[in-house]
Specification:
Radius of gyration: 24 Å
CATH class: Mainly Alpha
Shape: globular
CATH superfamily: Ammonium transporter AmtB like domains
Helix content: over 70%
Largest sheet: 2 strands, antiparallel
Number of strands: 2
Mean pLDDT: 92
Oligomer: single chain
Strand order of the largest sheet: 1-2
Structural class: mainly alpha
């Protein structure tokens, strides 16, 4: 009888241990992380509208302000649809994992978010639907950055078709390669929040579009000054604020990594803004509001890929070098080359993204990444710098070639450049039948 009793007790203990082990393995929702990523998602949304809309809108002439704002708003709508239907599965789908095809594309297993219910969790133990929406905001703002290159001269229908095709054929593959388990990620590329995926990608496309579309009528011979500098300041403030969600949210947790990303983002931006202002003050004798705002955005761009791996010292140098190099491109290279990048999308995002991604390979430190984590050349790992350089060069070539092809296709079908009369009239009237300000204002 005692043997039976001991056998039953032993069986119950064993069963309880198995049950406890099974319960322990089941991931549970982290409410703190979830709350933070909900907030971060809203902050990133803020970057496109109203942030980028005001920033770009203030820089163009008054007859084109609504066209730029419209482009930011419509991209928020149509790219969201594209992302939920196809983009998310193309980037983060797992249908082709394990083979060479999985290095290139994600697969169709999550088409229209198929199989992802409200209880499905992902990294950080947050709902996967929230992760999909957070990533959606990155997909939205990336083609919106290109708007600054062709402002004041692009046909709305051509712009819309180009942007959707670009999101499908350029953004999605690049995002999968770097973030979705693709070949760049397997190489060990560091791109915490989008230096390569977002800024190099958009910046190079911006340059190609600006060159192929041609210069605005009167470019270089007539004044094309920003019509509303307070709008630019407002847009800068909203971008600066929203970028904390962009960078600090990319770790998918409310933890020390997020706090460090928050800190280095703010510091690099402050250094870049102050450096740009100082350069203008020394060279042109007057510091401008447009200048300090542009410098701030250059710093935000450059720290984006590095925010998860650099400390305060590293971020200071990222901000410093990004301001100096971007200022050189905007103030000297662009006028010499005579390409019409209307709002310096390439000079700030393309150049700033490349500088930041490369410097990530210099200043990444195990002090932030943890023991055994990635570190840069400054701490002895020159291999990482090489990886960053290779990935960035491939990104430049891929983005340039694909943008060239898409430009040709869209231009041959619906057209991309407005007529001379439409350009002189302004895109607000010619493309949308509206004016931003009353006749007497």
């Amino acid at each position: 009888m005692k043997k039976i009793k001991y056998f039953i007790i032993g069986g119950l203990l064993l069963f309880s241990q198995v049950l406890f082990a099974q319960t322990e393995d089941v991931p549970t929702l982290d409410s703190g992380n979830t709350a933070w990523i909900l907030a971060a998602t809203m902050l990133v949304m803020l970057m496109t509208i109203p942030g980028l809309a005001f920033f770009y809108g203030g820089m163009v002439r008054r007859k084109n302000v609504l066209s730029v704002m419209m482009q930011c708003v419509v991209l928020t709508a149509v790219i969201t649809i594209e992302w939920i239907v196809y983009g998310y599965t193309a980037v983060f789908g797992t249908g082709f994992q394990g083979g060479w095809l999985g290095e290139i594309v994600g697969g169709l297993d999550k088409f229209f978010l198929y199989g992802i219910d409200k209880d499905a969790l992902t990294s950080g133990n947050i709902p996967e639907v929230l992760f999909a929406l957070f990533q959606c905001k990155f997909a939205v703002i990336t083609p919106a950055l290109i708007v600054g290159a062709f402002a004041e001269r692009i046909k709305f229908s051509g712009f819309l078709l180009f942007s959707v095709l670009w999101a499908i054929l350029v953004y999605n593959p690049m995002a999968h390669w770097v973030w979705g388990g693709g070949w760049m990620q397997r190489m060990g590329a560091i791109d915490f929040a989008g230096g390569t995926v977002v800024h190099i990608n958009a910046g190079i496309s911006a340059l190609v579009m600006a060159v192929m579309l041609g210069r605005r009528k009167g470019y270089g011979s007539s004044m094309m000054i920003p019509h509303n500098i307070p709008f630019v300041v407002l847009g800068t403030a909203l971008l600066w604020l929203g970028w904390f969600g962009f960078n600090a949210g990319s770790g998918l947790g409310a933890d020390g990594l997020a706090a460090n990303a928050f800190l280095v983002t703010h510091l690099a931006t402050s250094v870049a803004a102050a450096t740009w202002m100082t350069l203008e003050w020394i060279i042109n004798k007057k510091p401008t509001v447009i200048g300090i705002c542009t410098g701030a955005v250059a710093g935000l761009v450059a720290i984006t890929p590095a925010a998860g791996t650099v400390d305060a010292m590293g971020s200071l140098f990222v901000g410093l070098f990004s301001a100096i190099i971007c200022y050189t491109f905007v103030a000297y290279v662009k006028p010499k080359m005579k390409y019409d990048d209307s709002l310096d999308a390439f000079g700030v995002h393309g150049v700033g993204g490349f500088v930041g991604a490369l410097l990530t390979g210099v200043f990444a430190t195990q002090f932030i990444t943890g023991e055994g984590g990635q570190q840069g050349a400054l701490y002895g790992d020159w291999h990482q710098l090489g990886v960053q350089a290779i990935v960035n060069i491939v990104a430049i070539v891929f983005s340039a070639v694909m943008t060239f092809i898409l430009f040709k296709v869209v231009d041959k079908t619906v057209g991309l450049r407005v007529t001379t009369h439409q350009e002189e009239l302004g895109l607000d009237i010619s493309q949308h039948g509206e004016i931003a300000y009353g006749e007497n204002e």
